[in-house]
Structure formats: C-alpha cells, structure tokens
Design a protein that fits this description.
single chain; mainly alpha; three-stranded antiparallel β-sheet; globular
C-alpha cells in the first residue's frame, strides 16, 4: 500500500500524527488478515491472551487487555459459541477461561496471520531499524501509562 503524500506539511513532521495515520492503515490490514478466520482483531487478541495465560478469569484478562467488562462479555460469548474457548470453574465461584482444541487450532491460524502482517509491515526495515522503532514505541507507551496512573 503506497502512502499518499499529504497536501499540507504542518502535520507531516509530527510523530503523533504519523502514528495515528500508520495505526489506521495497519488496523485495516490486520482486520483483512483476520477476516478469512471469521475473527475481529479483539477476538484474535483474546485468543492469544487466553492461550498464553490459560486459567485466568474473564475479569483478569479484560483488565490486562484494557477491555471494559461490558465489552468482554460478548467477546467471550462469541468465542465460546464458536467453540474456541470454554469457561471452567476456578477458585471460589470464579470462572476461568481455557482454549478448547478448536481454539488452540484457531490460535495457530491467528499467529500465522499475525506473522504475515508483521512480515509485510517490516519488509523495508532492517533488523536494527525494526528494533529501534519497537523500543521507541515501548518508551512512548510506558510514558503514557505512567501519566495515566499518576
């Protein structure tokens, strides 16, 4: 996808503007990768979170992913209905989330889609440039988290 030259330059050198612009383009491309799997980005992210940390409660996973409880309920319900996850009784009356066998297979397809997406967006970057971009973005995110929790 070629980046169109913007007609005004006042925002072109602003990092926040460029991040927002690239974010919108990458979001659309990632959604296109997940579409054949019948998943939205949020559902794929939830599969990854549960696959990497099985046995956590819906509340814990939602908090870690910064998903509001009202939005977690339909996400979990859709993945459970699709047969990708199940609710398992945990400590006290808490229900924990586990991937089913079908969910584990779907997670592998999600990882393949993510790798294709990653390969496409980093194809023109050297390993060093990719590391620099990742480190800069992590620094920005950490700084924002400190502000949000101050």
């Amino acid at each position: 996808m070629a980046v169109r030259k913007i007609k005004f330059d006042s925002l072109g050198d602003m990092l926040g503007f460029q991040l927002r612009r690239v974010s919108a383009m990458l979001k659309s491309a990632l959604e296109a990768e997940f579409e054949p799997l019948g998943l939205r980005t949020s559902e794929a992210t939830l599969l990854i979170a549960i696959g990497e940390c099985p046995g956590r409660t819906q509340t814990e996973v939602g908090r870690d992913l910064r998903i509001k409880p009202a939005n977690m309920v339909p996400l979990v319900a859709r993945l459970a209905t699709a047969g990708f996850l199940e609710r398992v009784p945990g400590a006290r009356r808490a229900m924990t989330l586990q991937l089913t066998e079908a969910g584990a297979r779907q997670l592998e397809e999600v990882r393949k889609a993510l790798q294709r997406h990653e390969d496409r967006i980093t194809q023109s970057l050297s390993a060093q440039d990719k590391a620099l971009v990742i480190n800069a973005l992590k620094l920005i995110a950490e700084q924002q988290c400190r502000r949000d929790h101050a």
